[in-house]
Design a protein that fits this description.
Order of helices and strands: HEHEEHEEE
Strand content: 25-35%
Oligomer: single chain
Number of strands: 6
Shape: elongated
Largest sheet: 4 strands, antiparallel
Structural class: alpha+beta
Radius of gyration: 17 Å
Strand order of the largest sheet: 2-3-1-4
Distance between the termini: 23 Å
Number of helices: 3
Amino acid sequence: MSRNYELFPDDDNGNVLWQMVEDGNDLKEPHEFEFSIVFKEQADLEKCAMHLLHQEQKVSFFQEDQHIEGSDLWVLNIHVTMIPEYEDIEDLEQWFTRIGQEFNGDYDGWGCMSYLYEYEEDDEQLHN
């Protein structure tokens, strides 16, 4: 299968989505995406998390281990289940960037955990 650059532009988001296709993911099925915003202050993260909860977003957060410069960063993850489409990811990145800035945070990217299962008749087990 050859890459359609209209669906998968030659940039970070297009490249990751294309890699998902090459890895066997069905992009017509919903996937859970995790968009991240990082904060220096826990209070700013909490305000942002409350704002996103009022926007009916699913969130989680944690504190990273201490960094070289001595600061502990707080990471807010926004969990979005959606059909992976380039334009939707771009729109969400812009929205989360604006929200992060509003609450003194920095948008830090997205990830998507995908699992591929194969059914083997011989041992009737599921494999990753």
